[in-house]
Amino acid sequence: MVRKPRVHYAGAIYHVIARGNNRENIFLDCCDKEKYLELVARYKKRYNCEILAYVLMDNHLHILIRIDQTPLSKVMQGIQQCYTQYFNQKYKHIGHVFQQRYKAFLCDNDSYLTALVVYIHQNPIRAKLPEGTDYLWSSHKDYTAGNSVLVDIDFILNMLHPNRREAYRKYFDLCREIQVPQAPPEVSLPDEVHIGREEDQRQSSTMNKLTWQEIVKKIIIENNIEKEKLLGRCRERKIVAARNMLIYEAINQEVLSRRELAKILQVDPARITRGFQKVEESIKNKSKNQA
């Protein structure tokens, strides 16, 4: 089999979009948004990334990020898992906070990038929020202030023009028009990253499957519980709900069969079916409520 081209390289720029599970809100108050930005800053420092733009809406977010040696998948895994743990602890929530996969678009065109930054900043306008581009939870304020600890504004402004005054003139000219840049192909982001053509997407769906150990770890982190309780016979409500989610994930991703799960968890196969159906029904009900 011909090896697909790697997309990960030092200096690669990605437009990341993450949405709430079942279109639910991922930020319920300002403290949640502050926490998320705190995590972005932490992992930016840890992995030497550059944040070029961002906006945090109630049920989704956009981040324009330039990575160094560490792949985007590892950076985002750290941010998303830590925030999920925070959210689940704060709101006594069980299960996913984000949709299983965030979208990531490789950006390697200067004119596209500059329009994309403004597009990200214009999200509050498209959402008809009264603040418009003055929305507190976007990096537009960092650009207008001319400096920022979190956002690396120089990269985009220097791209617009080497003279700072002229760069700002061009930036504000872009802001005066609604930007809808043509999105590049989405890229798949397992441990290895590949160009997101249709045929690659079909093959990468298999590559993106988590192993049993990875699913267990993910459920433990999301729900802040002990592995022994999750895989044991603990009947605490929180543990049972997490175990049902574990069952659902393993079956849904075709990692294990019901019979194999029953053997691992030492329960009757009918118990596995009931656990799967409870989660499936809960997801369907949430979807109906969102409709």
TrEMBL record:
Protein name from the UniProt record: Transposase-like protein
Family annotation (SUPFAM superfamilies): Transposase IS200-like, TrpR-like
One function term, GO molecular function aspect: transposase activity
A Pfam short name: Y1_Tnp
GO terms under biological process: DNA transposition
InterPro entries for this protein: Transposase_17, Transposase_17_sf, Trp_repressor/repl_initiator
All copies of domain Transposase IS200-like, residue ranges: 9-123
